[in-house]
Amino acid sequence: ESLIAMLQARLDSLSPDARGVALLASVMGRVFWVGAVLAAARQSPGTGPLKAHTDALETAVSNGLAELVRAELAFPRAGSMFTGEQEYIFKHSLLSEVAYSLLPLKFRRLYHTAVAQWLGKFATPDFAATMAEHLERGGFYSDAAQKYEQAAHYAQTLGAMDEAEWLQERAGLLKMAPADARSFPDTGMLHNP
User: What's the CA gap between 105 and 117, in Å, rounded?
Assistant: First the structure.
């Protein structure tokens, strides 16, 4: 508990831009990308954790990331899983969890949906499960089930049968979600293998 309190205090001591970037980045977990942070920030310009308006978001994210690095709370990574996207990592996984706990509940679904859409641009089979998780947290259960099924199929091709079984079970549970569950905006990304 004292460690969590200390991490909250460190986040609270940051500038508004750095704190806002940390909260938005936490939606992805310990590892995050600048493009995904921007995608989330664009969902609530001026009203979410990052108070910058649309025309100043990129500068606010850049300044916030620079401060997080100076404070040794996050670090840029030499390589990235996504071509052309700068990847960062929080110093500790607990730091990303604490930042996520500070994220207002009213924005979480919105940000998970934005991250899912951003991940959809890359549409690689090895990120289907990650995209499914963000779709599920965004409330798009039918679309999340479809992505979990794709991830299960991909896991089977890799011989990861336990993982494939868990992913398939998760898809089945989500298919039983209420019929009024929202449908994901059709960008074509849900139809990629």
Answer: 20
Determine the 3-state secondary structure of 87 from DSSP: strand
Q: What is the pLDDT of residues 113-164, one digit of tens each?
A: 999 999 998 878 888 999 999 999 999 999 999 999 999 999 999 999 999 9
Q: Which long-range contacts (CB under 8 A, 24 or more apart) does 34-39 make?
A: 34/61, 34/65, 34/85, 34/86, 34/88, 35/82, 35/85, 35/118, 36/85, 36/114, 36/115, 36/118, 36/119, 37/61, 37/65, 39/114, 39/115, 39/117, 39/118
Q: Tokens 């995050």 appear where?
A: 32
Amino acid identity for residue 177 in this structure: A
Tokens of 90: 């929080």
Residue 127 DSSP label: G
83 Cβ contact list (under 8 Å, min separation 6): none
Under a CB-based contact definition with an 8 Å cutoff, are residues 68 and 21 in contact? yes
Q: Is the pLDDT score of 182 beyond 80?
A: no
Q: Any idea which residue has 């089930």 for tokens?
A: 145
Enter the DSSP assignment of 88: E
Q: Which residues contact 45 (CB under 8 A, 6 or more apart)?
A: 52, 53, 54, 57
Stretch (H or E) spanning 35: helix 34-41
